[in-house]
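Notes from the 1:1 (GR / supervisor)

We went over the backlog. Supervisor wanted to see one worked example end to end before approving the batch request, so GR pasted a single chain during the call. The sequence is below; no edits were made to it. Supervisor asked that the structure be written out right there so they could see what the output format looks like.
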Amino acid sequence: MDDIIPSDGSPNILSVDTKILRELCLEWIHTKDFMNYFWSMHPTTMTLVPLAVVGLFRKELRGAGTRMGKSSPELMANYRNAVRKAPVVFSQIVMANTAVIYEGISSPALVVVASGPGADEIMVHAAGVLARVHFGDVNTRDEEVLAKSIVDEEYRFGQRRRLPEWLVGSIEAYAADLWVPGEVAHEGGLHSNTLPCFAEPGPEGLTFAIPRTFIEKSIRRTTPPPIVR
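Structure output shown during the call:
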């Protein structure tokens, strides 16, 4: 992952109707589009061989198949279960690959995920601290330990790092590796620090980004009250 942090503002989280969002995604998980989305994140047996061959010549692609998590019926079922049951979390980007930031090309990112009362504010705060310490602005021993926990920028599917209590209080929050498919970005790249996701709780919970089209369709549309004559 590149040391890049989107700097523009996040969208109004409250404008998204999460009930409608989940309904739209529940319809989506039974379509071919979902299967293509899934395969874009997880290589099949047929694509593992080409990845291994390319990895012989390109160092950054060595072991990519293992890091991305092999496609399987069980893994696909986990995604479908997350759509049905996992909290909708407006994760905060710590850093992301320039390809997805500026071009909307599928690439990895590091995000903060948490859920429950106060989680949105905690994610914003934690992402800011993580970005600062990652770039070397470390003020305390605790921050030094935190910086070391995210020093490895290599993407690994399912990798989560529990954030310490001094940073997030009693809220269960994680720095999570996240693959960001192109469908999640706008034309020309990401437009905010926020990536809406389905994020299961726990150190081994699944996190995956929600396609932008569903976010747009679930935005609450307010209409003015009727004129009374």
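Supervisor's comment: Residues 13-29+86-217 form one domain.
Batch request approved.
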